[in-house]
Amino acid sequence: MTPQYSQNMDLSKYTVLAVDDIPLNLLLVEKMLSKFNFKLKTAGSGQQALDMIAAEKPDLLLLDLMMPGIDGFEILSRLRSNPETADMQIVILSALNSNEDVVKGFQLGANDFITKPIIMEKLLNCIVTQFKLIEAKSKN
What we know:
By secondary structure, the protein is α/β, with parallel strands linked by helices. The chain has helices spanning 23-33, 46-55, 72-81, 99-107, 120-139, and strands spanning 15-19, 39-43, 60-63, 89-94, 112-115.
């Protein structure tokens, strides 16, 4: 079920990178989003995500927080402090849902925060909203 306000958008021009260290979570996101027209890429670690972002800056990052090595908070901090990636749309997808975690995510620069388990309609609406923000920025 595509949100009505996305039907006039060309989603195929957007690339989304989903980052999660749990393959099943990535598979779930892929399955949820496979019927939509944007390019979906996945990364299984923080370092892999940073490498992929450096190689090809995606339009939107779906970012898990709890990962070994470089966690989501660190990725968020690095991306926001780098002029090349400072304006990237970043949505946190996490099982962490305490007020402290949510506030920290927003303080570090997340554009939105979705808690797991993920509701497909909520995730898709969030993604389309982020794409609309990208389009609005590009018109200015």
